[in-house]
Design goal:
By secondary structure, the protein is an alpha/beta fold. Helices cover 41% and strands 18% of the residues. The chain has one domain: 3-Layer(aba) Sandwich (Rossmann fold). The chain has nine helices and seven strands; from the N terminus they run H-E-H-E-H-E-H-E-H-E-H-H-E-H-E-H.
């Protein structure tokens, strides 16, 4: 019985996710689901992405947190529209939450929609939301063993961003071993090395985003 209930929940979520994706495609909006553990640098990456691209493309952001509006307020200060989703204790954004966020935005005025998912390496990977692309961050301080511990997350994304690269000389993070593990799980994943502090990898990351916009 529990299995049946779980299947019903996931099936309903997937139906809504498909509707979300159809709506985004109809309006030529690229949605990117940005995931990571807490503190890996999602907000910083989004802010830097806005800084680099807001004069070239129209951007909006949906911020998902268990509580608070802190990150959405930071986004709004840049002049980019932002919607805050508070999940009320849920450790992920589901398709219904994402759809509710989309409804509060004017899609005709958006090229790129960034969702900052709840900080977690487990739950967000389990729920389709309707974003056309999925991205995850793994920061150097978290260690290089995470592909083995959280394989689903690494399997479901098109991009893996190794963030806080400025910490690499101070750590025992084995970058070659990490990338080998990622490619073993997800051979097609793009891997970018990024540091917001010194600007490493930002051009490569934003270049990838622009290339994906041309495919929508």
């Amino acid at each position: 019985m529990k299995v049946t209930v779980l299947q019903d929940i996931m099936s309903a979520n997937d139906r809504i996710a498909s509707k979300n994706e159809d709506l985004l495609n109809k309006n030529n909006v690229l949605a990117v689901n940005v995931m990571s553990s807490p503190g890996a640098g999602k907000t910083s990456l989004i802010l830097e992405t806005i800084k680099k691209l807001k004069n070239q493309i129209k951007i909006a952001v949906i911020e998902a947190d268990i509580s608070s509006t802190i990150d959405a307020e930071k986004i709004i200060e840049t002049g980019v529209p932002a919607v805050q989703i508070n999940t009320g204790g849920e450790c992920h954004t589901d398709a219904n939450m994402f759809g509710t966020g989309i409804e509060q935005l004017s899609l005709k005025d958006i090229d790129l929609l960034l969702l900052e998912n709840v900080g977690n390496l487990v739950c967000p990977a389990e729920f389709r939301i309707g974003a056309q692309r999925n991205v995850m961050l793994l920061s150097i301080p978290e260690g290089d063993d995470k592909p083995y511990k959280y394989p689903l997350m690494f399997t479901t994304v098109e991009v893996v961003i190794v963030s806080k690269m400025d910490y690499l000389p101070l750590s025992d993070f084995n970058l070659d071993q990490f990338e080998k593990a990622v490619k073993g799980i997800n051979p097609d994943a793009h891997i970018f090395h990024v540091s917001i502090k010194n600007g490493t990898g930002i051009e490569e990351w934003t270049g990838w985003l622009k290339s994906q916009l041309r495919l929508i």
